[in-house]
Amino acid sequence: MPQANKPSLEKLQALRGMADLLPSQTSLWQQIEVKAREHFHRSVISELRTPLLEQTQLFSRGIGEATDVVGKEMYSFLDKGDRSCTLRPEGTASVVRASIQHGLLKQGPQRFWYSGPMFRYERPQAGRQRQFHQIGLEYLGFNNPCSDIEVISIAWDLLEDLGLTDLTLELNSLGSNEDRVTYREALLSWLEERKNDLDPDSLNRLYTNPLRILDSKVKSTQTLLREAPTLSEYLSADSINRFERVKTGLEALEIPYTLNPRLVRGLDYYSHTAFEITSSQLGSQSTVCGGGRYDKLIEQLGGPSTPAIGWAIGMERLALLLTQNNPVPNKSIPEIYIVNRGVTAEPFAIVVGRLLRQSNHKVELDLSGSAFSKQLKRADRSGARWALLIGDNEAEEEKVILKDLKTIPSKDSQEEPIKLEILMRQFN
Ligand code: ATP
Ligand code: MG
């Protein structure tokens, strides 16, 4: 028969900036997630899961129109009902929305954590993707500087417990809203005198949101800003006092920090404490964890005036750091490998495998139907401690042959078939 000409299909690929997590990576991700859950559990923090898709308004009102995230990076579209929807670029706004919507703030202060994918249309590079993942923490209804210290220490301890060294905690105070109004004027007039030296992006922000310019990634602008007035010179006595208490608390916990007066963070809602945890091993995408206080956000999103603070860890960057330190991927290793072949043997092997799994053993069942010798080689390669050999003869008598793969057999040692009940007694 003549072969029909197949149309040449373009190879299907994931979208740019959207990565698959392969089995060589997922075991590390799971370890991180387990560890994070343990830390949250020990601090009595509850998990909150919110939708990936929200009304666009939530982010434009919450994060701020003049930020990169809202201005350029959002995945927004109209749904079939002509509603403007956005794939969440971060978690805080959604956590706040859910807390207001379900009246959770009426029940007193709340401690929440979340994790999952976030979406930002950015230029993909190492440690920067369009779909990335965060684990985050939000403390809603806490004003005491001690809450800042607790929140920061949870991030610090988690990262340390995961085995990261070379971490730096960069710390700043963005002061109160009133402090920032005074500072904004000072910064604006300083920048106006240097208009010609600003990059086009920063120039655009001069009158909309000059503080954003401090977050510019453009080298020439960063150099220029080294001489700019800093917020710390404009903090009120109350704000300074508050910041001192946070610093003293961190010192008591022996968490080292570096003051960074230019740290403003990428979102507009921060006030007072702002921080980043960076690693020198990450190159230019050096921030693993970013966070800060956002005392006005909840009110801005229609809730009761509630102070709050939180952070988010970037999973990709964290995983990158951990694989740099420990390049061996953890392969999933079975405890028992079942070698089986034959019309009676194969269905019996499934029964045996299921029984063992029900007794909590990790079992890999060979499904190839290939020659015993081939299956045995695979059993060896799998790293399993035990192999079970099942042929039709064994199956007919409900027996199996148990082979220890880790001890070297003596020449005339021959494993005898044993009854399934005896095997199960041994593995119980
Ligand atoms: P950056 O300055 O690196 O863009 P950001 O200030 O935009 O970070 P946040 O919104 O505070 O970051 O998010 C917290 C953390 O999430 C970051 O410190 C980083 O680890 C991670 N993160 C943010 N954007 C991305 C991305 N596009 N790809 C991978 N991780 C990201
Ligand atoms: Mg960013």
Question: What are the SSEs and their pairings?
Answer:
Elements: H1 23-42, E1 46-47, E2 53-55, H2 56-63, H3 68-73, E3 75-78, E4 84-87, H4 92-101, E5 110-119, E6 131-140, H5 145-161, E7 167-173, H6 177-192, H7 200-205, H8 210-213, H9 219-225, H10 237-252, E8 257-259, E9 271-279, E10 287-293, H11 297-300, E11 308-314, H12 315-325, E12 336-340, H13 345-358, E13 363-365, H14 372-382, E14 386-390, H15 392-396, E15 399-404, E16 417-419, H16 420-426
Parallel strand pairs: 1-5, 7-8, 12-13, 12-14
Antiparallel strand pairs: 2-4, 3-4, 5-6, 6-11, 7-9, 9-10, 10-11, 14-15, 15-16
The structure holds adenosine-5'-triphosphate (ATP) and magnesium ion (MG).
Please provide a written account of the structure.
The protein folds into two domains: 244 residues, Bira Bifunctional Protein, Domain 2 (BirA Bifunctional Protein, domain 2), CATH 3.30.930; 91 residues, Rossmann fold, CATH 3.40.50. Helix content is 38%, strand content 21%. An eight-stranded mixed sheet has the order 1-5-6-11-10-9-7-8, with helices on both faces. A five-stranded mixed sheet has the order 13-12-14-15-16, with helices on both faces. The chain binds adenosine-5'-triphosphate and magnesium ion.
- Overall shape: it is elongated
State the CATH class of the largest domain: Alpha Beta
CATH topology type of the largest domain: BirA Bifunctional Protein, domain 2
CATH architecture of the largest domain: 2-Layer Sandwich
Provide the number of structural domains.
Answer: 2
Give me the Rg, rounded: 29 Å
CATH-defined superfamily of the largest domain: Bira Bifunctional Protein, Domain 2
Main sheet properties? 8 strands, mixed
Low-confidence runs of at least 5 consecutive residues: none
Question: In terms of structural class, how would the helical and strand content be classed?
Answer: alpha+beta
Ligands and ions found: adenosine-5'-triphosphate, magnesium ion
Overall strand count: 16
